[in-house]
């Protein structure tokens, strides 16, 4: 029988692979941005986390603190004092700000993790391009948009690429490093090195819709929702089927709730607009209904399932 082993990697700054990137600005302190800020700080980098309000930033810092403690519990299980130091040191490397332009002035790397909307991303990068130092690399954590399209509004197209993390960022080991058509080799190399420095296994992908993982995951989740919508099986049974029958850690509907149904909808709408003849990307009435009702999944306490607030 095949044996599985849980691998706990050491992220402390002394053991982390060195990277040319010392100062990272992460824009968007939601589900993904807070995780990206966390793994960067764990790796010893100086992080500025930006969001639109101090409330959002306070929420992000609280969740980073909780998740750092989960990591420390595993990494320092025999030395809780060191664990506490790791948490405090990592938190101490994260500053917060509400002015993205100001926060990008000292960045070697800007990672954008704001809402999945091309107009909003364009507005942000256009503004940052005018103020960030010329050496600063810009990266988007987009799930489904084209890196070339996002980069179209900046002059530094050679210093723009995709850094696509997975949720939950501190746990998921993969980073997709996406080369746009004008991303330079030097930028690509720095992004790969930086990815390794924050503890991820990096794969390279061209700027193709969904990159590798979401190209496969989106049709899978869409089909699961349609199966449920048709009444062919209950949500619970669909999820159990894929966990026990295919060995996935989460079922597709649990995963859709975990990712956020609003993000799912942004992705589906965007791909439907781009590929109107593709049946797989046709709007799903049940998804439209849940999002319209504000049932966005885990983050709002209800999606396909109900969640208790912790
Ligand atoms: C809906 C309409 C269709 C439209 C299109 C659909 C599109 C959808 C496509 C995706 C959209 C965008 C997403 C994207 O771009 C890419 C993604 O991120 S896809 C998501 C990838 N992630 C997964 O697949 C997650 C799969 N799940 C898991 O791996 C596990 O279930 C999980 C680790 C999340 C939780 O594990 P579980 O055993 O269930 O629970 P525990 O709570 O016990 O956790 C286990 C272990 O891990 C530690 N841990 C968990 N979370 C964190 C954290 N945030 N930080 C630190 N540590 C964490 C926890 O402490 C446990 O540690 P132990 O020591 O083992 O106790
Ligand atoms: N949710 C997921 O599982 C994954 C999402 N992504 C991508 O990551 C990005 C972020 O997604 P999530 O973290 O899930 O979203 P989220 O909704 O949890 O967080 C987005 C954050 O960005 C902030 N924001 C919005 N506009 C801003 C601006 N102009 N300046 C500063 N902050 C701003 C919001 O206030 C919010 O806190 C999206 O592009 C998404 O496609 C990528 C991988 C996985």
From TrEMBL:
It catalyses: (3S)-hydroxydecanoyl-CoA + NAD(+) = 3-oxodecanoyl-CoA + NADH + H(+); (3S)-hydroxyhexadecanoyl-CoA + NAD(+) = 3-oxohexadecanoyl-CoA + NADH + H(+); a (3S)-3-hydroxyacyl-CoA + NAD(+) = a 3-oxoacyl-CoA + NADH + H(+); (3S)-3-hydroxybutanoyl-CoA + NAD(+) = acetoacetyl-CoA + NADH + H(+). InterPro entries: 3-OHacyl-CoA_DH, 3-OHacyl-CoA_DH_CS, 3-OHacyl-CoA_DH_NAD-bd, 3HC_DH_C, 6-PGluconate_DH-like_C_sf, 6PGD_dom2, Mito_3-hydroxyacyl-CoA_DH, NAD(P)-bd_dom_sf. One of its GO terms (molecular function) is NAD+ binding. The record marks 164 as: Important for catalytic activity. SUPFAM superfamilies: 6-phosphogluconate dehydrogenase C-terminal domain-like, NAD(P)-binding Rossmann-fold domains. Coiled coil: none annotated. GO terms for biological process: cell differentiation; fatty acid beta-oxidation; spermatogenesis. Homodimer. Interacts with GLUD1; this interaction inhibits the activation of glutamate dehydrogenase 1 (GLUD1). PANTHER family: HYDROXYACYL-COENZYME A DEHYDROGENASE, MITOCHONDRIAL, PTHR43561. Belongs to the 3-hydroxyacyl-CoA dehydrogenase family. This is Hydroxyacyl-coenzyme A dehydrogenase, mitochondrial. The lineage of its organism: Eukaryota, Metazoa, Ecdysozoa, Arthropoda, Hexapoda. The gene is LOC114251439.
